[in-house]
Amino acid sequence: MDIGSPQQRGTLAMLLLREGTTVTLDELISGLWGDEPPRSAVTTVRTYVYRLRRVLQQEGDDATSLESSGGGYVLHVPDGAVDINRFRAHTLRAAAATRHGDRRAAAAELRSALTLPDGRPLAGVQGPYAQGQRARLEQWIATAHLDLIEAEIHLGRHREILPDLTAMAAAHPLWEEVQALYMTALHGMGRTAEAMEHYRRSHRALVDELGIEPGAQLRAAMHHILAPAPTTVNAGPRRPRAGGSPRRRRPAWVSHRRLVR
């Protein structure tokens, strides 16, 4: 569909992203021009809406309508017509599968979600609103990518995801979640010494660049790596102490507290 100039595309983007709720004329003007709209802003936005309405009518889709509503406009589209809604549905199903411990189903849903983005979100759309939404959507996509990597790690697919994860770790040296997953993948492949060295490099980067110590995720990854591997010898159930329950064991990482801090 030829939906016109970049600002006309921006108008359509605002209407679509509001998902069937009214966007006021003032919101459209602010979203396109920010605090310095032209004097003709009201007339220009109304022209954009008129042209968009004509394009939609030419498509002959009765399920799509652009209507005036409460001093603004609302765009109604069929369910599933907007890729962001399909993306959300996949990620919600992935989250539910993760909660139920079904990492395989979660990974499948996340792969389906990540086939939807095609290039940069809102490519060619201008204005303050599009700029803010673009950052939000890029973050959403990146989060889904990390969730997929985490699911793949739980499935033991360290070798398959390591190339992408290596690139992400290099591109985002201060993103602790990425660094923690990278360390975990290295450790899962038996490259524990590299994982520990990467922790030390990440630690230095955080201190030098931000003046902070590693957060909970990065520390937890290090604790996991330092924890002793579970024994394969079945010594049978431990006998309870007299007068009570078995003695609680101290977490393995406690002995390494000085190292990781």
Automatic annotation (TrEMBL):
Stored Pfam families: BTAD, Trans_reg_C
Residues in OmpR/PhoB-type domain copies: 1-77
List the CDD domains: BTAD
State the Gene3D superfamilies in the record.
Answer: Tetratricopeptide repeat domain (1.25.40.10), Winged helix-like DNA-binding domain superfamily/Winged helix DNA-binding domain (1.10.10.10)
Q: What positions does the DNA-binding region cover?
A: 1-77
Q: Which domain of life is it from?
A: Bacteria
| Compositional bias of kind Basic residues | 238-261
* Disordered: annotated segments: 230-261
Q: Which UniProt keywords apply?
A: DNA-binding, Transcription, Transcription regulation
Which family, according to UniProt? Belongs to the AfsR/DnrI/RedD regulatory family.
Per its record, how is this protein called by name?
AfsR/SARP family transcriptional regulator
Organism, by scientific name, is Actinoplanes sichuanensis
